[in-house]
Amino acid sequence: MPFFKVTLIRSGIGLSHKKLGVLKALGLRKRMRTVFHDVNPAIAGQLMKVKELIALSTSDKKLTRRQMHEKRQPPTGFEVEKSRLVTKEETPTGAVLDRTSRRSMNLCFGVDMI
Amino acid sequence: MVRGQPTQLEHQASPLTHPPYVEPDRKRPWRISKPQKYRQRQRLQRIDRIVDTIESALAKRGMTSQAVEIWKAEMPTETEMPPRDKYTIFDKKHKGYRKGIHKLPKWTRVSQRINPIGF
Fold first, then answer.
1. Has residue A50 got a pLDDT over 80?
2. Which domains does chain A have, with CATH numbers?
3. For an interface test with B, which of A47, A53, A57 has the most B Cβ atoms less than 10 Å from its Cβ?
């Protein structure tokens, strides 16, 4: 299912209250904030109202802010081929281990050192 | 009243006491510069791309949007617009009824593409 990926690249400061309200409704409170929305006529109408302020593309996945942040991180430079204590099934918090995810790596090492 | 601190009246920002700041017309050059014109074209093209993205995304799901349809019917694209419309705007008070688009308040964040009927 496709989504609109919307980023606010121009501030709404000084514009009409209607446009500011649309930005608020879309969840665009600060510049460079990215949000994902369903593709439907209601959202399309809202995007048309603020089209001068946004960057727009379509995306197959709806990413959370955490996922977008982790996507931007540089590679760790190493891979864990095998862990003695923590395997994919045994992750204490139930999180799926991903080698590009720094947070998961830290979690992995944290348990390893105990 | 404590000196230096805002009074109660100053807290209430009403349109009468705090009109939105608009740069005085006399401070803006009469002529729009070449880089300004270039960036204006980029902005117009970007908006065209955004409208196309919305339209194609809806079309893939078999939907349409009234806002998009009205825009497509009424507004020319950047390539269809004559330079006169890209860089100048109708103004009843100006000589020749045209003035530079850079005189329009918030001109980089608003869409201004068509003229009144007869102009």
1. yes
2. 3-67 (3.30.1390.20), 73-114 (no CATH)
3. A47
